[in-house]
Amino acid sequence: MPEPRKKPRSAYKRFVYPQPNACWQIDSTEWQLADGRKVAIFQLIDDHSRLALASLVATGETSAAAIAVVTLAIECHGAPQKFLSDNGSALNPTRRGRTGALVEFLKARGIEPITGKPYKPTTQGKNERFHQTLHRYLHRQPPAPSMPVLQLQVDAFDLYYNNEREHQGLPPGLTPREAWDATPKTPPPAPPEPAVAGPGRRSAQRTVDRNGCATILGTHFKLGNEHIGTTVHILYDDAVIMFFGAQGTEIISHRRPAQGTPYVGNGKPSGVAANPRGARKKRSIYPTLKARQPTPENEVST
What we know:
Layout: E1 23-32, E2 38-46, E3 52-58, H1 63-77, E4 82-85, H2 101-107, E5 112-115, H3 125-139, H4 147-163, H5 176-182, H6 194-197, E6 202-207, E7 213-216, E8 219-222, E9 231-236, E10 240-244, E11 250-255, E12 263-264, H7 276-292
Parallel strand pairs: 1-4, 4-5, 8-12
Antiparallel strand pairs: 1-2, 2-3, 6-9, 7-8, 9-10, 10-11
């Protein structure tokens, strides 16, 4: 039955960037190995041509894995002008008021990170559709016993997807590789001004000690007891130092302290000031115990 209140599908116009490398899209999808272990598969595509730029099997959706697959794609295809992702903590938590390791990685190369609106997965619809095609392909393969074997299967899929399969979202008869080759590429982004990027940016990893601190450049930086035992990723230059959690979400940032500074706090209260209610509870234990001790009035003679 016709439904006049709804637009026909033919009335919708899909937005497409006009050139390859104008915008890339990234997302990850979950998959299971033969033994039931869950892994993440990162897929990176070009918005204009739908070319599978790079894919990576990882232990989970982390910023380190995202940076690895983006690095591989840039080495093979050049850098895009824009970079679209969802608002996940490992990809782009900017809308949550924080930065992330992948965001900083992109900005340092002049690439503009952008996200869709929260709870609007249609913004990443092209990548979601890409996941479905990959899943159908993998379901026809023998279950992968390990991540390297699964990576080989994903690589084989990318070759098929790019070079043999006509894409429904492209002009009739075109494969993503043909669409990629048919249009001049968007010029690479201009690198940021040195004052913005900061000279000599470096990275490091540290394990947070039992005091909730990470030590770098001879200074103990307080991150918080909730991070004890975790590995943090650190980006720093002559002006600023930033700490990121395992998923790439920023924990805290500081101006780089003067050389010889022994300790930098996190601005949060500690001890009794941090939990005055808990301190009151400790004091209240003693009267309770004292009240339970036998007295001459309530002793029972035998």
